[in-house]
Predict the 3D structure of the following.
Amino acid sequence: MRIAERMNRIEASPSSMGRQRARELRESGRDVLSLTTGEPDFDTPLHVQHAVTRAMAEGDTKYTDPGGTPALKEAVRQKLKRENQLDYAMSEIVISTGAKQVVYNALMSTLEEGDEIVVPAPYWVSYPDVARLAGAIPVEVQCPAESGFKLQPADLDRAITPRTRWLILNAPNNPSGAMYSRDELKALTNVLMRHSQVALMTDDIYEHIRYDGREFVTALNVEPALRDRTLVVNGVSKAYAMTGFRIGYGAAPAALINAMVKIQTQSTSNPSSIGQAGAIAALNGPQESVKKNTAIFESRRNRVVEALNAAPGVKCHRPEGAFYAFASCEALLGKRTPQGKVIATSSDFVLYVLDAANVAMLQGEVYGVEGFFRISFAASMEVLDECCSRIARACAELR
Ligand code: PLP
């Protein structure tokens, strides 16, 4: 079977592949602990589970409108108003099979061959690859740890060309956990106000998972004038521990939403009916689980950052949100393993830790940054403690 040329432009999602590799090693008898996963390790709230059972019993098991059920769109509309002070009409909202499909459909609907999108690095792995699949060129802008992994306005300005179609902002960020203050966001939107050809995608999926009492601000809160060229992306996967439900949503001007729905009519038809029923319960129901889970994530964040910073050669920035630690192993590059192999890249380091210490993590390269590694703290404190001591031991053995 001949595979299309465009498939050579992209890689399989490294986090999905990392998860699979860790499982295979475990099944082969190795005591591998995996910190690769991007999903909360908590149960989906009971009231959501009950809503789904009820929906099935009531026959809510058929195709829905391609862009989502009116009831869920209304719940999203209310959520955006209540929590984000954003006002959208029903025609400006789409429900999709995960936030990932929102991103995919938006890029597919708008990018032409040779167009560019600006992606601050470190970035969520899918943005550049989906852009490449659409024939566009991802322009990566490095956001170093010294500036808190945050995009700087001058760097954004320099990256924009007449072919730039999108800036993708994701905060709290996967993998760095970085968040923007109002002033920082305003400085970035000021740049966009000078470049009317650039649309803004704000991926707010980790909105609720933030620490130290930080406020969540999305770009439209500081620059409402960007509304007619902004797509707000969000979903229930991370906040409500509902990754398997595959429900995400987007809010944008109707012309973009219509194009995105058109793709759904020809690809997935509609997001799952029972998934949507669960998402309505999540958005409209009690929010206690979100607070409770975030507090647990925060105490894990504190422990993991401290433990990683105690490991020889590792330096870990303190994430402000999301549930990942993105740590530097730059000081270890060039060292040798006990077997004499040189650790030249963060991929070498991650492979070494997997081989020597049975801990699966992901290398910074996949997020567009060399010299770093990501661990997810969506795991119990016992597992995290054990992993951090294994990592520290492996680091201490490098010469
Ligand atoms: N955006 C970011 C930044 C993510 O990290 C993820 C998942 O890892 C997604 C979007 C996709 O979320 P969903 O499970 O809703 O497709």
User: Anything to note?
Assistant: The CA atoms of residues 17 and 115 lie 29 Å apart. The first strand starts at residue 33 and ends at 34.
